[in-house]
Every structure is written in C-alpha cells, then in structure tokens.
Design goal:
Radius of gyration: 16 Å
Number of strands: 13
Shape: globular
CATH class: Mainly Beta
Number of helices: 2
CATH superfamily: Exo-inulinase, domain 1
CATH topology: Jelly Rolls
Largest sheet: 8 strands, antiparallel
Length: 212
C-alpha cells in the first residue's frame, strides 16, 4: 500500500511539468446514447467545439480509466455547462454516472451563488478553494486529473480542488446530495468524457488527453 501511495504522489507531482507532446488531441465525438452522429447544435471544426442550446450531450468515442484532460472553455453570459468523466451509457443521463467539472458564468448564473455549484466545482459535491474563473466570454484554461480514485480539478493554473472517490468524506457528501438517487454515480472504473448540453452557448478548444 505504501508503495502504491508513493507512486500516486510522485505521478501527481510530475503532472505540473508534463510536456505538451505527452498529450494528444481528443477529436472523435458522438451523441450520448447514439453511435451514429453528432447533433447539429454541436459544431466541431479543427480544435474548436461550439455548442448552441439543444441537441443533448456529446461523448468521446473512446473510454478512459486514468488520465489527464486539458482544455479551454468559454461560456456565454448567464451560461451553464459541464465536462463529465467516467461516464457510461447504461444510465438515462450522463450525470447519473459521471462526476462533473462545472462550467459556469459565476457572475451571471444562479449556480454561481453557491461554491458547491460554481465554476470548476465537482458539481454539488466539492467546492473550489477559490474563484479563479474569468468573466463570461473569456477563455479559461482547465485540467482534470483522474488517477485511480484520486481526482483533481485545475482552473487557470490553480489546483482548486482534490478528492478521492469512495472515501468516507466522498460517500457522506454523495449521500447528502441529489446523486444519492443513482447508486452508480462516481463508481465507474472507466468511461467516456462528456460535454454537457445545459441550454447555453459554450465553446471548448484544444481538448487534449494523456492516459496515465
């Protein structure tokens, strides 16, 4: 156990000095629950993904277990979206299985009034340590690290939260949240990356992934 913990610590410390060449673009997407297409409300052009309200979520065609995901995001005024991870399609909706990195205009959306649902939160479960988000219409830089049960959210160069799936603290927080209704939430060993349709205009660019 000590050797594994040391490995995790060394691996996480090394993430801050990862070369760009260690990542690869994540470019192959499809509709959640539908292998045939990308909804017309999602436009994928080169490294830019633009979303107009409607059409449902899209997911990566690949699934991932341990990874570092890096991306930029820009939300419209009053907008709300999210990036979910380890999402599986045996549930009715992506948020029933995959934890969410919240994408939000903190100043213009009601969710910004609570740290638990603000930008870069693990939506409804863990709040960021500080609000380092940029205003609506500006590009933010984000990272999500998932290694075993350990998860980190980064925003604009700051690690704003870290948690461990399945820990007593996590279990207590989930039990006190709406996610208690879905026993599979946050318990999947691998899954898709999901970009959420939450009825807002949102852009993503330079989405890159590095399996760990």
């Amino acid at each position: 156990m000590r050797r594994f913990c040391l490995y995790v610590m060394v691996t996480l410390l090394s993430l801050t000095s990862v070369a760009a060449d260690d990542f690869r673009p994540l470019t192959d997407w499809r509709a959640y629950g539908n292998d045939g297409h990308v909804p017309s409300t999602w436009t994928i052009l080169g490294g830019l993904i633009h979303h107009e309200p409607g059409g449902g979520d899209i997911v990566s065609r690949e699934t991932f277990t341990n990874f570092e995901l890096a991306f930029d995001w820009r939300i419209a005024p009053g907008g709300n979206s999210g990036v979910m991870y380890r999402v599986v399609e045996s549930f009715g909706a992506p948020y029933q299985s995959g934890p969410e990195y919240q994408i939000l205009d903190n100043a213009g959306h009601p969710d910004g009034q609570s740290p638990l649902t603000s930008a870069a939160s693990a939506y409804g479960i863990y709040a960021p340590s500080a609000d380092v988000s940029l205003p609506a219409g500006e590009w933010n830089s984000a990272r999500i690290v998932v290694l075993g049960s350990h998860v980190e959210h980064w925003l604009n160069g700051v690690r704003v939260l870290a948690y461990d799936l399945g820990s007593p603290d996590w279990e207590a927080r989930v039990a006190a949240s709406k996610f208690a209704a879905w026993p599979g939430y946050g318990r999947q060993p691998a899954g898709h990356i999901d970009l959420q349709d939450h009825g807002a205009v949102v852009d993503y660019r330079d989405i890159r992934i590095r399996p760990l």
